[in-house]
Amino acid sequence: MKTELFDFHLPEELIAQEPVKDRDKAKLLVLRKDTGEIEHKIFYEIVHYLKKGDVLVLNNTKVIRAKITGKFMDTGGKFDGLFLKAGNGWMEVIVKKAKRARVGRKIVFKDGTVGVVKEILPEGKRVVELEGNVDVMNFIDRVGDVPLPPYIKSMGIKEEDYQTVYAKKKGSLASPTAGLHFTEGLLEKIKSIGIDVLYVTLHVGLGTFRPIRTENIEDHEMEEEWIEVSPEVVEKIIKTKERGGRIFAVGTTVVRSLETAALSGKLKPFRGYTNLFIKPGFKFNVVDALITNFHLPKTTLIVLVSSFAGREKIMEAYREAVKKKYRFFSFGDAMLII
Protein backbone atom coordinates (compact mmCIF):
# COMPACT_ATOMS: atom_id res chain seq x y z
CA MET A 1 0.00 0.00 0.00
CA LYS A 2 1.14 3.52 -0.75
CA THR A 3 2.26 5.49 2.31
CA GLU A 4 0.47 8.58 0.99
CA LEU A 5 -2.86 6.81 1.62
CA PHE A 6 -2.24 7.49 5.32
CA ASP A 7 -1.70 11.22 4.95
CA PHE A 8 -4.19 13.90 6.01
CA HIS A 9 -4.38 17.67 6.37
CA LEU A 10 -4.11 19.02 9.89
CA PRO A 11 -4.27 22.74 10.76
CA GLU A 12 -1.29 23.56 12.97
CA GLU A 13 -3.49 25.13 15.64
CA LEU A 14 -5.03 21.72 16.37
CA ILE A 15 -1.70 20.28 17.58
CA ALA A 16 -2.09 20.24 21.36
CA GLN A 17 0.72 22.07 23.14
CA GLU A 18 -0.37 21.32 26.70
CA PRO A 19 -2.55 18.73 28.42
CA VAL A 20 -6.07 19.63 29.48
CA LYS A 21 -6.25 20.67 33.14
CA ASP A 22 -8.30 17.63 34.14
CA ARG A 23 -6.96 14.64 32.22
CA ASP A 24 -10.26 12.79 31.96
CA LYS A 25 -12.11 15.83 30.56
CA ALA A 26 -10.48 15.64 27.14
CA LYS A 27 -12.83 15.03 24.24
CA LEU A 28 -13.53 11.47 23.12
CA LEU A 29 -14.51 10.49 19.58
CA VAL A 30 -16.19 7.07 19.53
CA LEU A 31 -15.93 5.16 16.25
CA ARG A 32 -18.01 2.05 15.64
CA LYS A 33 -15.73 -0.01 13.43
CA ASP A 34 -18.54 -2.14 11.98
CA THR A 35 -20.75 0.74 10.83
CA GLY A 36 -18.47 3.79 10.80
CA GLU A 37 -20.90 5.59 13.13
CA ILE A 38 -19.26 8.40 15.11
CA GLU A 39 -20.24 9.78 18.53
CA HIS A 40 -18.76 12.76 20.40
CA LYS A 41 -18.23 12.35 24.14
CA ILE A 42 -16.00 13.40 27.06
CA PHE A 43 -13.25 10.95 28.04
CA TYR A 44 -14.65 10.09 31.49
CA GLU A 45 -17.74 8.77 29.69
CA ILE A 46 -15.58 5.82 28.59
CA VAL A 47 -17.16 3.95 31.51
CA HIS A 48 -20.44 3.74 29.57
CA TYR A 49 -18.77 1.61 26.89
CA LEU A 50 -17.25 -0.88 29.32
CA LYS A 51 -19.27 -3.77 30.74
CA LYS A 52 -18.79 -5.94 33.79
CA GLY A 53 -16.48 -8.79 32.81
CA ASP A 54 -14.44 -6.76 30.32
CA VAL A 55 -10.70 -6.17 30.72
CA LEU A 56 -8.81 -2.88 30.35
CA VAL A 57 -5.10 -3.30 29.52
CA LEU A 58 -2.63 -0.46 30.15
CA ASN A 59 1.08 0.01 29.40
CA ASN A 60 2.89 0.73 32.68
CA THR A 61 6.16 1.92 31.13
CA LYS A 62 7.71 5.10 32.53
CA VAL A 63 9.47 7.76 30.45
CA ILE A 64 13.14 8.13 31.33
CA ARG A 65 15.15 11.35 31.21
CA ALA A 66 16.63 10.40 27.87
CA LYS A 67 17.39 13.88 26.51
CA ILE A 68 21.11 14.35 27.16
CA THR A 69 23.02 17.57 26.54
CA GLY A 70 26.62 18.56 27.15
CA LYS A 71 29.56 20.40 25.61
CA PHE A 72 32.43 19.19 23.48
CA MET A 73 35.55 19.78 25.55
CA ASP A 74 37.72 20.93 22.64
CA THR A 75 35.44 23.66 21.25
CA GLY A 76 32.66 24.22 23.79
CA GLY A 77 30.12 23.38 21.08
CA LYS A 78 26.82 21.81 22.12
CA PHE A 79 26.29 18.06 22.25
CA ASP A 80 22.60 17.17 21.92
CA GLY A 81 21.64 13.49 22.13
CA LEU A 82 18.83 11.08 22.85
CA PHE A 83 19.72 8.08 25.01
CA LEU A 84 18.77 4.74 23.43
CA LYS A 85 20.36 2.00 25.53
CA ALA A 86 23.09 1.32 28.07
CA GLY A 87 25.88 -1.17 28.62
CA ASN A 88 28.60 -1.46 31.25
CA GLY A 89 29.89 2.12 31.41
CA TRP A 90 28.69 3.07 27.93
CA MET A 91 25.54 4.35 26.29
CA GLU A 92 24.16 4.41 22.78
CA VAL A 93 22.70 7.76 21.77
CA ILE A 94 21.25 9.28 18.63
CA VAL A 95 22.93 12.64 18.10
CA LYS A 96 21.64 15.86 16.63
CA LYS A 97 24.21 17.21 14.14
CA ALA A 98 25.89 13.82 14.37
CA LYS A 99 28.84 14.71 12.10
CA ARG A 100 30.30 16.70 15.00
CA ALA A 101 30.38 13.59 17.19
CA ARG A 102 33.55 12.08 15.76
CA VAL A 103 35.41 9.17 17.35
CA GLY A 104 37.66 10.37 20.15
CA ARG A 105 35.86 13.66 20.87
CA LYS A 106 35.19 14.21 24.55
CA ILE A 107 31.97 15.59 26.01
CA VAL A 108 31.48 17.09 29.46
CA PHE A 109 28.00 16.80 30.91
CA LYS A 110 26.37 19.14 33.42
CA ASP A 111 27.33 17.06 36.47
CA GLY A 112 30.99 17.07 35.36
CA THR A 113 30.94 13.52 34.00
CA VAL A 114 33.13 13.13 30.91
CA GLY A 115 32.24 10.90 27.97
CA VAL A 116 34.18 10.00 24.85
CA VAL A 117 32.76 9.01 21.46
CA LYS A 118 33.94 5.43 20.90
CA GLU A 119 31.99 4.23 17.87
CA ILE A 120 29.99 5.62 14.95
CA LEU A 121 26.78 3.75 14.12
CA PRO A 122 24.29 4.31 11.27
CA GLU A 123 21.52 6.94 11.30
CA GLY A 124 23.28 9.39 13.61
CA LYS A 125 23.82 6.92 16.45
CA ARG A 126 26.98 6.92 18.55
CA VAL A 127 28.45 4.83 21.35
CA VAL A 128 29.68 7.09 24.16
CA GLU A 129 31.83 5.67 26.95
CA LEU A 130 31.64 7.42 30.33
CA GLU A 131 34.87 7.92 32.27
CA GLY A 132 35.07 6.62 35.82
CA ASN A 133 32.96 3.96 37.47
CA VAL A 134 29.60 5.41 36.35
CA ASP A 135 26.22 3.68 36.61
CA VAL A 136 24.72 4.77 33.29
CA MET A 137 21.05 4.71 34.35
CA ASN A 138 21.80 6.77 37.48
CA PHE A 139 23.73 9.17 35.25
CA ILE A 140 20.71 9.51 32.91
CA ASP A 141 18.43 10.25 35.86
CA ARG A 142 20.89 12.84 37.13
CA VAL A 143 21.66 14.82 33.99
CA GLY A 144 18.87 14.05 31.53
CA ASP A 145 15.52 15.64 30.79
CA VAL A 146 12.29 13.99 29.68
CA PRO A 147 12.23 14.21 25.86
CA LEU A 148 9.09 15.85 24.53
CA PRO A 149 7.99 15.41 20.91
CA PRO A 150 9.43 18.11 18.62
CA TYR A 151 5.97 19.49 17.76
CA ILE A 152 5.42 20.55 21.40
CA LYS A 153 6.80 24.07 21.67
CA SER A 154 5.32 24.99 25.06
CA MET A 155 7.95 25.66 27.74
CA GLY A 156 5.61 25.10 30.67
CA ILE A 157 5.41 21.29 30.54
CA LYS A 158 6.28 19.49 33.77
CA GLU A 159 7.76 15.99 33.79
CA GLU A 160 4.64 14.56 35.44
CA ASP A 161 2.46 15.98 32.64
CA TYR A 162 4.10 13.50 30.28
CA GLN A 163 3.77 10.44 32.57
CA THR A 164 0.68 8.31 33.05
CA VAL A 165 -0.62 8.12 36.62
CA TYR A 166 0.26 4.40 36.63
CA ALA A 167 3.76 4.69 35.12
CA LYS A 168 5.99 2.22 36.94
CA LYS A 169 8.74 0.54 34.89
CA LYS A 170 11.42 2.92 33.62
CA GLY A 171 12.50 2.54 30.01
CA SER A 172 10.49 4.64 27.52
CA LEU A 173 11.69 7.42 25.26
CA ALA A 174 8.10 8.62 24.86
CA SER A 175 4.88 8.35 26.82
CA PRO A 176 2.17 5.84 25.88
CA THR A 177 -0.06 8.86 25.41
CA ALA A 178 -3.49 7.20 25.21
CA GLY A 179 -3.02 6.50 28.90
CA LEU A 180 -2.52 10.16 29.80
CA HIS A 181 -6.32 10.59 29.88
CA PHE A 182 -6.79 8.31 32.88
CA THR A 183 -6.90 9.62 36.42
CA GLU A 184 -6.62 7.49 39.55
CA GLY A 185 -10.28 8.29 40.25
CA LEU A 186 -11.42 7.17 36.81
CA LEU A 187 -9.47 3.91 37.12
CA GLU A 188 -11.07 3.24 40.50
CA LYS A 189 -14.52 3.87 39.01
CA ILE A 190 -13.76 1.45 36.18
CA LYS A 191 -12.67 -1.23 38.66
CA SER A 192 -15.80 -0.65 40.77
CA ILE A 193 -18.09 -1.69 37.93
CA GLY A 194 -16.39 -5.06 37.59
CA ILE A 195 -13.64 -4.35 35.07
CA ASP A 196 -10.26 -6.04 35.49
CA VAL A 197 -7.41 -3.54 34.97
CA LEU A 198 -4.24 -5.28 33.77
CA TYR A 199 -0.76 -4.05 32.85
CA VAL A 200 1.74 -4.95 30.16
CA THR A 201 5.02 -3.19 29.43
CA LEU A 202 6.33 -1.82 26.15
CA HIS A 203 9.25 0.58 26.41
CA VAL A 204 8.58 3.06 23.62
CA GLY A 205 11.62 3.52 21.41
CA LEU A 206 12.37 4.89 17.98
CA GLY A 207 10.24 2.19 16.39
CA THR A 208 6.94 3.62 17.60
CA PHE A 209 7.30 7.26 16.60
CA ARG A 210 9.64 7.18 13.59
CA PRO A 211 7.74 8.28 10.43
CA ILE A 212 7.40 6.02 7.40
CA ARG A 213 9.77 7.38 4.75
CA THR A 214 9.33 4.63 2.16
CA GLU A 215 6.92 4.97 -0.76
CA ASN A 216 5.11 1.76 0.25
CA ILE A 217 4.33 0.85 3.86
CA GLU A 218 5.51 -2.73 3.24
CA ASP A 219 9.09 -1.46 2.78
CA HIS A 220 9.22 0.19 6.21
CA GLU A 221 11.14 -1.67 8.90
CA MET A 222 10.28 -1.25 12.57
CA GLU A 223 13.06 -0.99 15.15
CA GLU A 224 12.82 -3.42 18.03
CA GLU A 225 11.20 -2.43 21.34
CA TRP A 226 11.20 -4.36 24.60
CA ILE A 227 7.88 -5.80 25.86
CA GLU A 228 6.60 -7.98 28.66
CA VAL A 229 3.25 -9.77 28.81
CA SER A 230 3.14 -11.76 32.05
CA PRO A 231 1.64 -15.22 32.63
CA GLU A 232 -0.92 -13.65 34.99
CA VAL A 233 -2.12 -11.23 32.31
CA VAL A 234 -2.31 -14.03 29.74
CA GLU A 235 -4.36 -16.22 32.08
CA LYS A 236 -6.84 -13.45 32.89
CA ILE A 237 -7.29 -12.48 29.24
CA ILE A 238 -7.88 -16.08 28.16
CA LYS A 239 -10.51 -16.55 30.89
CA THR A 240 -12.15 -13.25 29.93
CA LYS A 241 -12.37 -14.31 26.29
CA GLU A 242 -13.80 -17.70 27.26
CA ARG A 243 -16.67 -16.12 29.16
CA GLY A 244 -17.42 -13.58 26.41
CA GLY A 245 -15.71 -10.53 27.90
CA ARG A 246 -13.93 -7.99 25.72
CA ILE A 247 -10.33 -6.82 25.75
CA PHE A 248 -9.91 -3.02 25.67
CA ALA A 249 -6.34 -2.00 24.76
CA VAL A 250 -5.22 1.44 25.91
CA GLY A 251 -2.89 2.59 23.15
CA THR A 252 -1.14 1.14 20.15
CA THR A 253 1.71 -0.06 22.37
CA VAL A 254 -0.68 -2.36 24.25
CA VAL A 255 -2.05 -3.65 20.94
CA ARG A 256 1.45 -4.48 19.71
CA SER A 257 2.37 -6.12 23.01
CA LEU A 258 -0.68 -8.36 23.16
CA GLU A 259 -0.70 -9.22 19.46
CA THR A 260 3.04 -10.02 19.52
CA ALA A 261 2.34 -12.46 22.36
CA ALA A 262 -0.39 -14.06 20.22
CA LEU A 263 1.34 -14.26 16.84
CA SER A 264 1.13 -18.06 16.95
CA GLY A 265 -2.66 -17.75 17.09
CA LYS A 266 -2.71 -18.43 20.82
CA LEU A 267 -1.88 -15.87 23.52
CA LYS A 268 1.23 -16.86 25.48
CA PRO A 269 3.49 -15.09 28.01
CA PHE A 270 6.19 -13.05 26.27
CA ARG A 271 9.28 -11.25 27.47
CA GLY A 272 11.69 -9.87 24.89
CA TYR A 273 11.84 -7.68 21.82
CA THR A 274 9.21 -7.01 19.17
CA ASN A 275 9.39 -5.29 15.80
CA LEU A 276 5.78 -6.10 14.90
CA PHE A 277 4.41 -3.68 12.30
CA ILE A 278 0.62 -4.05 12.14
CA LYS A 279 -0.60 -3.32 8.62
CA PRO A 280 -3.97 -3.73 6.85
CA GLY A 281 -4.80 -7.41 6.54
CA PHE A 282 -3.38 -8.24 9.98
CA LYS A 283 -5.43 -10.76 11.98
CA PHE A 284 -6.11 -9.48 15.49
CA ASN A 285 -6.13 -12.39 17.93
CA VAL A 286 -6.62 -10.55 21.23
CA VAL A 287 -7.81 -6.93 21.07
CA ASP A 288 -11.54 -6.19 20.74
CA ALA A 289 -11.56 -2.42 21.35
CA LEU A 290 -8.90 0.28 21.21
CA ILE A 291 -8.51 3.55 23.11
CA THR A 292 -6.00 5.74 21.31
CA ASN A 293 -5.01 9.32 20.51
CA PHE A 294 -5.04 11.03 17.12
CA HIS A 295 -1.78 10.19 15.39
CA LEU A 296 0.66 11.88 13.02
CA PRO A 297 0.14 11.29 9.30
CA LYS A 298 2.23 8.65 7.53
CA THR A 299 3.28 6.85 10.72
CA THR A 300 3.06 3.23 11.80
CA LEU A 301 0.52 4.36 14.41
CA ILE A 302 -2.09 5.59 11.95
CA VAL A 303 -1.46 2.47 9.86
CA LEU A 304 -2.16 0.32 12.95
CA VAL A 305 -5.46 2.02 13.79
CA SER A 306 -6.43 1.82 10.12
CA SER A 307 -5.73 -1.90 10.24
CA PHE A 308 -8.02 -2.22 13.24
CA ALA A 309 -10.96 -0.13 12.03
CA GLY A 310 -10.47 0.17 8.25
CA ARG A 311 -8.55 2.94 6.50
CA GLU A 312 -11.60 4.68 5.05
CA LYS A 313 -13.37 4.79 8.42
CA ILE A 314 -10.27 6.15 10.15
CA MET A 315 -9.73 8.85 7.53
CA GLU A 316 -13.37 9.89 7.79
CA ALA A 317 -13.09 9.98 11.60
CA TYR A 318 -9.97 12.16 11.32
CA ARG A 319 -11.77 14.54 8.94
CA GLU A 320 -14.61 14.75 11.46
CA ALA A 321 -12.15 15.37 14.30
CA VAL A 322 -10.54 18.24 12.36
CA LYS A 323 -13.97 19.68 11.59
CA LYS A 324 -14.95 19.51 15.28
CA LYS A 325 -11.58 20.97 16.31
CA TYR A 326 -10.35 18.02 18.34
CA ARG A 327 -6.84 18.40 19.73
CA PHE A 328 -4.24 16.15 18.10
CA PHE A 329 -1.15 14.13 19.05
CA SER A 330 0.44 13.49 22.48
CA PHE A 331 -1.50 15.97 24.64
CA GLY A 332 -4.55 15.82 22.41
CA ASP A 333 -7.99 14.25 22.64
CA ALA A 334 -8.83 10.56 22.42
CA MET A 335 -10.62 8.07 20.21
CA LEU A 336 -12.39 4.87 21.19
CA ILE A 337 -12.65 2.30 18.41
CA ILE A 338 -15.22 -0.29 19.38
Overview of the structural elements:
The protein has helices at residues 136-143, 184-192, 206-209, 231-242, 252-261, 300-309, 311-323; strands at residues 27-31, 38-42, 55-59, 61-63, 67-72, 78-86, 90-95, 106-109, 114-120, 125-130, 169-172, 196-202, 225-229, 247-250, 270-274, 289-293, 334-337. The chain has 338 residues and is α/β, with parallel strands linked by helices. It has two domains: 3-63 and 156-337, QueA-like; 67-143, QueA-like (Thrombin, subunit H, Beta Barrel), CATH 2.40.10.240. A nine-stranded mixed beta sheet has the order 2-1-17-16-14-3-12-13-15. The chain has a six-stranded antiparallel barrel with strand order 5-6-7-10-9-8. Strands 4-11 form a two-stranded parallel sheet. A hairpin with a 3-residue loop joins strand 6 and strand 7. Helix 6 crosses helix 7. The radius of gyration is 21 Å and the shape is globular. The two termini are 25 Å apart. The model has no long low-confidence stretch (mean pLDDT 97).
Features:
338 residues, alpha/beta, QueA-like, Thrombin, subunit H, six-stranded antiparallel beta barrel, 20% helix, globular
Summarize, please.
This protein is of the alpha/beta class.
What's the helix-strand series?
EEEEEEEEEEHEHEHEHEHEEHHE
Q: Sheet with the most strands? A: 9 strands, mixed
Q: Whole-number radius of gyration?
A: 21 Å
Number of helices: 7
Average pLDDT value? Answer: 97
Helicity level: 10-25%
CATH-defined fold name of the largest domain: QueA-like
- What number of structural domains do the residues give? 2
CATH-scheme architecture of the largest domain: 3-Layer(aba) Sandwich
Please tell me what the overall shape is.
Answer: globular
SSE-based structural type: alpha/beta
